[in-house]
Amino acid sequence: RQQYYQAKRYLEKSFAIEPDNPQCLMNLGLAYYYMGELEDAIEKWKMLEKLDPSNQQVINNIRAAERELNR
Fold first, then answer.
1. What is the pLDDT of residues 52-62, one digit of tens each?
2. Cα–Cα distance between 45 and 3 in angstroms, integer?
3. Is there a contact between 47 and 24 (Cβ–Cβ < 8 Å)?
4. I need a labelling partner for 24 at 20 to 30 A (CA). Which of 51, 56, 58, 69 fits?
């Protein structure tokens, strides 16, 4: 779990510099997801979905996080 906190720190810095970077958005969403910060994960993935609406992986990630959030 510690590695997710460290990754989150670096990815948040990257996001501050380049907020439209698809790889950063995907990975930051994953870090949030695995840390249990589902709302933040969904927010980042929805930003990515706007950039790439046909990305099935991000659509699946959003659905999974929303299901988990609504449990």
1. 999 999 999 99
2. 20
3. no
4. 69
Tell me the average pLDDT of the chain.
96
Q: DSSP letters along 1-70, please?
A: -HHHHHHHHHHHHHHHH-TT-HHHHHHHHHHHHHTT-HHHHHHHHHHHHHH-TT-HHHHHHHHHHHHHHT
Round to whole Å and give the CA distance between 68 and 64.
Answer: 6
Tokens (6 digits) for 12: 């948040």
- Whole-prediction pTM value? 0.93
Q: Is 20 left (phi over 0), alpha (psi -120 to 50) or beta?
A: alpha
